[in-house]
Amino acid sequence: MSKLYVVGIGPGNYENMTVRADEALKSADAIIGYHVYVELVKARYPEKEYLTTPMTREAERCRMALDEAKKGRNTALVCSGDSGIYGMAGLCFELRGEDAEPEIEVVPGLTAACSGAALLGAPLTHDFAVISLSDRLTEWAIIEKRLVNAAEADFSIALYNPASHGRPDHLKKACEILLRYLPEDRICGVARNIGREGEERFFMPLSELAEFPADMFCTVFIGNSSAKMINGSMVTPRGYRNV
Q: I want to staple 234 with a disulfide (CB 3.0 to 4.6 A). Which of 31, 121, 149, 206 is the partner?
């Protein structure tokens, strides 16, 4: 029986892809995805058939993958980072509904909260919240509520989708909300182009984060009250007693 693999490919470089993801892509007859993510894997699997859709066409992409698998072809739908965290796995299950076929296998990947944190140091060593600033699928009022709750609970916070051409001010708006509850000198970090050409990291206080030129290739980290800089890296202590 053919299978639909929903594959998290991590940041995009092979070194940060799991063995299981590599095996799923090797076994696939067709690889489907947003064209940017497809380009990240095409060179390693040149013999595969590739099908793409533009951004914002997620439902079409999932239906395409389900249809290919129903034809009896092993199919891989690729997602950046993890396939379930802001990925396509949930939508594939929703669109398949109660049907038994095709079989769906979710292949996890390294999400940007993990890979970005590793680039910055160790900012997520304790409890943390992950929040997307994209209001394309979630109302801004809900995003604002989650920002407030995370700040009041003293979570470390990882922000996905901090800004784009269509919403250039979302990070600034988020910072204005956070500054109602957090001090201006709260340590923040930005990881850009994680695992890809042009990889960079930046550190700044929350008071300066609003003006950072973030884009969709950035993941933003706001430290909790224990976060500190140690020799150029952002660190959140776990609270080990005898350190």
A: 121
